[in-house]
């Protein structure tokens, strides 16, 4: 048992080390300047993308050695030399693409997810042509389509190719134009993707595995009832350890509401949800009683997950998740007329918090140098990260690229068939979990019992006899719909063991 544990720890250490380099370079700004975090320092290099903007819907990814290989303006995929990869142009429906001049105006509108065998998923929310026409004619402007693409970087001699284009994840949906984030599954290999609805608070959930994508339905919550329309700014975030989720949006009317919940990386379930409300603050002075603002446009968890940073257009706030108190970190750093709004924010590879701008020609991002520290000790530095750009008018630093925590490793959710654990704890073990067809059940109980599988409505969909003699049984579950189920071991009307089971296809 100790040998197996040591092997697992060594495996996780090697895996996380490789994963941590996926996000070590950032492509952002008007012309796609590069921010390079390698070698324990920060370097900025000029961008040379002449027809694309990387200031709002941008994303990118490096290989396991930290070399920048893929980047996106939200609607196209390029290599590091500003060339389309094979099949990487026009990855949203054409009417909307042409209207937007071929790049995304909306935050968190693209993301890359790495897989084994040098393959990557690329996901984009967007308009269908029919919904875009309705938006233009009737101002009925919500995204109704969520697409994914598969990129094989082994193709074309390592130059890469999009081998599956514009595959629908959701159609005829009502989706926010912003607010999409991913988190590694607890197995350390696959990915959860969470996407917000436009009206109310519905979270759509998908599991991206090495060879398939599974729709895990959605979770609907009583609030917030965010407004719609002006939702080109907004952000969803997951804490560095994958245990918390938060989201907010700049809707009409602006409410300053932030939704927070616990996130289960094993089963993709949100729980213990709550809503917090940003305090009303003035554009210039938080102690002024005139011209208040109650808007939230960006979020970021501190590295230790104890603080949530909330950006309004003109203020930066901290929310302490332990004592439920607010701290005002910063307001305007120039006059109102010259200030470029705060926007989305992401943790860098150096565990500092980088805050982008919305609008204007700023070439700088602001930085929180000690984001785990509450209050003034967080060491906020306005406009302290400057992009290297081609010319005076090539600023528009915008936001950092949309990235999940690529360095997050595996998490133990269940023991996979370890006899010593079964004997010590008397557990019942179900594996593989997730399961596609055959489920193996092992148990250590000296009386006959039964196992029930229950769906989310509480209906028993499977039941199997557990003999005290055999200590194991197999069960086919390929007739069950994909989703999250509960299981329970029953002995004489007493529940002995319970847990969650994922059925995938």
Structural write-up:
- The chain has 505 residues and is mostly beta strands.
- It has 2 domains: 20-386, Methylamine Dehydrogenase, Chain H (7 Propeller); 419-503, Sandwich (Immunoglobulin-like), CATH 2.60.40.
- It has 4 helices and 35 strands.
- The longest helix is centred in the N-terminal third of the chain and has 18 residues, at 2-19.
- Residues 1-15 and 414-426 have low confidence and may be disordered.
Helix/strand layout:
Blueprint: H1 2-19, E1 25-28, E2 33-36, E3 43-45, E4 59-62, E5 68-72, E6 77-78, H2 94-99, E7 111-114, E8 119-126, H3 129-138, E9 145-152, E10 161-170, E11 175-184, E12 191-197, E13 201-208, E14 213-221, E15 234-238, E16 244-249, E17 257-264, E18 269-277, E19 281-282, E20 292-293, E21 298-301, E22 307-311, E23 316-320, E24 325-330, E25 341-347, E26 353-358, E27 364-368, E28 380-386, H4 419-425, E29 428-431, E30 438-443, E31 449-454, E32 460-466, E33 472-476, E34 483-491, E35 494-503
How many structural domains? 2
Oligomeric state of shown chains:
single chain
Distinct helical segment count = 4
Percentage of residues in DSSP E strands: 35-45%
What is the helix fraction of residues, given as a range? under 10%
Helical/strand content category: mainly beta
- Roughly how many Å apart are the termini? 32 Å
At a glance:
It is built from 4 helices and 35 strands. The chain is mainly beta and 505 residues long.
Features:
505 residues, 4-stranded antiparallel beta sheet, mainly beta, Methylamine Dehydrogenase, Chain H, Immunoglobulin-like, disordered N terminus, 2 domains, 42% strand
